[in-house]
Amino acid sequence: MPQVHFKRGNFIESSHRIEAVVVDRAGRLVLAKDRPHYRTFWRSGAKSFQILPFLAHGGMEKFALTERQLAVMVSSHSGDQFHLQLVQAILSNMGLSPENLACGVSEPLDPAIARQLYKEDRPYTALHNDCSGKHSAMLGLALLTGAPLAGYTAPGHQVQRLMRSAVARAAGLAENDMDEGVDGCGVPTFSLPLYNMALAYARLSDPTDEDWQGRHADAARVRDAMRAHPDCIGGRGRFETVLMEVTGGRLIAKLGAEASLCIGSCPAGQGLVFKIVDGGRRALDHFGIHILRRLDWITAAEQAALLQHFPPEIRNDHHQPVGSVEIEWDC
Is there a domain that residue 42 lies in? Predict the structure, then answer.
């Protein structure tokens, strides 16, 4: 099993184990290290597919939304001002307000933004929640289907039933093959094998009618919004955003809580998903760069550009290098 080692001097101080799988659009295993059917919660990795019922019901046209707004509806955004403005505009077009959001109030994912709000004595709001875009789409889906806005986060609500079905279909599973828990923003989240997560991203990266039951245009629309607007999917300095920017949208990427990452290779029609088993987010960027280069999904120049953003070294409070991050692959 691959491991990411954090070394101080020449000694390993801590390690993180990785589960990783690569699947092509036909469902063939390209890489499995070591348990392709290892189950975990998909968390925000499912957002790329939870949006599909909103598209199928004509939400983009009904509410006159842009592709940039579509991107923020599948995002785990950092809480930058432009993210908030995009979500606010979506809600306004629906005749709603932030008060309708049931995602909860949370600190922005970008620490610099959180610090600035603290310095200015400005409170966090539901718009700052990294899932506020997804929740705006859920509210829109309720309006489109005539379902009540109240209780839209409950598992039995029409909105959640439609989204659960869409996620299962994208992953090639029956709905009863997915276990369910409650996500940080209060809606259902799904547990399924990494293999099926990777299959969904392989299909998303190169959609066909056969894979999407005739709705491949909706899947392509999600993919293209992610490729065109990576700053909406994550935010400044976030690995998924930087990766899509560096590769010019050749790869699409979506982070999930507790350190999982889903990546689709658009030219190859393949999906990669890996999970840091202990949820250690700090290992994610380093392993991501390593495995992408090992798979030849990024060039040497792109690897170098990513390493500029995410250097494999440990520095102390004086900014002196005191250690390194190393990948052990064949364990």
Answer: yes
